[in-house]
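Support request from a user on the community tier.

User writes: "When I paste my C-alpha cells into the form, the page sometimes reloads and wipes my input. The last time it worked, I copied everything first. Here is what I submitted, just in case something in the input itself triggers the reload:"
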C-alpha cells in the first residue's frame, strides 16, 4: 500500500506524544523502586543493608551523569574549517583584500624569507626571481627576453664541404677542414673558421639586448 503522507499537524502531534512517552519512560526507569532494585543487585550489597533516600538519590545522580557523558561522547565534534589554499591570487601583493596583507610582519618574513644566502645554498626559487633583486633594468629585460624570432640574427649554416678527394682533381683534401681539431675544445682551429663562429655568435646574442632596449624605450615614452 502506498504510504499516506501525514499533515504537519499530525506530525506535530506525533512528535509531542513521542516526547511525552520518552519522558515517561525515563521517569519510570529512574523511579525509586527501579533504583532500589539496581542497588540490591550491585556488587558489595549485603542483604539487610538499609537503602536510604540519600543512597537512592546518589545512585540516580550517578546514572544521569553516566548518560550525559555517553551522550556527549556520541555528539560529533564540529569539523574544522577547511584551510584556505595560499595560491597566487590570495598572495597578491597589489591586492589590498588578499590574505598577505592580513599577515603580521614576522609571519610575512617566515613565509617569504628574503635573507642573504651563501652562494652555495641559494634561496630555492624555481623561476630565478631571487636573482632579479639587484639587477639593472637592462639586465632584467635581457634575462627575461623571449625566444628570438627565428629568421633574425640566425647564424648562417656552415659552408658546404669541398668536394671529396679525387685523384688528379684540384679540390683541397677534406681532412684540412673536417678534422678532429674542430671538435676538441682548446685545440687550435683554422683562424678563419674560428673567427666566423665568433662573428656568428656575436650577431646572434645581440637579440636579447636589442629586445631589452626596445622595452626600455617603450617604458620611457
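"...and here is what came back when it finally went through:"
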Amino acid at each position: 500500500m502506498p504510504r499516506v503522507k501525514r499533515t504537519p499537524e499530525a506530525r506535530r502531534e506525533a512528535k509531542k506524544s513521542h516526547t511525552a512517552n520518552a519522558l515517561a519512560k525515563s521517569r519510570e526507569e529512574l523511579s525509586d523502586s527501579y533504583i532500589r532494585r539496581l542497588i540490591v543487585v550491585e556488587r558489595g550489597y549485603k542483604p539487610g543493608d538499609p537503602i536510604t533516600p540519600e543512597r537512592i538519590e546518589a545512585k540516580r545522580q550517578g546514572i544521569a551523569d553516566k548518560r550525559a557523558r555517553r551522550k556527549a561522547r556520541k555528539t560529533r565534534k564540529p569539523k574544522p574549517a577547511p584551510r584556505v589554499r595560499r595560491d597566487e591570487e590570495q598572495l597578491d601583493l597589489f591586492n589590498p583584500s588578499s590574505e598577505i596583507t592580513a599577515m603580521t610582519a614576522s609571519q610575512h618574513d617566515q613565509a617569504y624569507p628574503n635573507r642573504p644566502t651563501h652562494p652555495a645554498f641559494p634561496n630555492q626559487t624555481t623561476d630565478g626571481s631571487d636573482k632579479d633583486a639587484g639587477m639593472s633594468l637592462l639586465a632584467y629585460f635581457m634575462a627575461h627576453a623571449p625566444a628570438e624570432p627565428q629568421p633574425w640574427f640566425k647564424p648562417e649554416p656552415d659552408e658546404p664541404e669541398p668536394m671529396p678527394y679525387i685523384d688528379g682533381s684540384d679540390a683541397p683534401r677534406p681532412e684540412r677542414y673536417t678534422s678532429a681539431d674542430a671538435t676538441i675544445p682548446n685545440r687550435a682551429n683554422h683562424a678563419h673558421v674560428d673567427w666566423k663562429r665568433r662573428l656568428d655568435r656575436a650577431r646572434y646574442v645581440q637579440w636579447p639586448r636589442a629586445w631589452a632596449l626596445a622595452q626600455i624605450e617603450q617604458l620611457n615614452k
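Agent notes: The reload is a front-end session timeout and is unrelated to the input. Residues 92 and 173 are 66 Å apart (CA to CA). The chain is about 45% helix and 0% strand. Escalated to web team.
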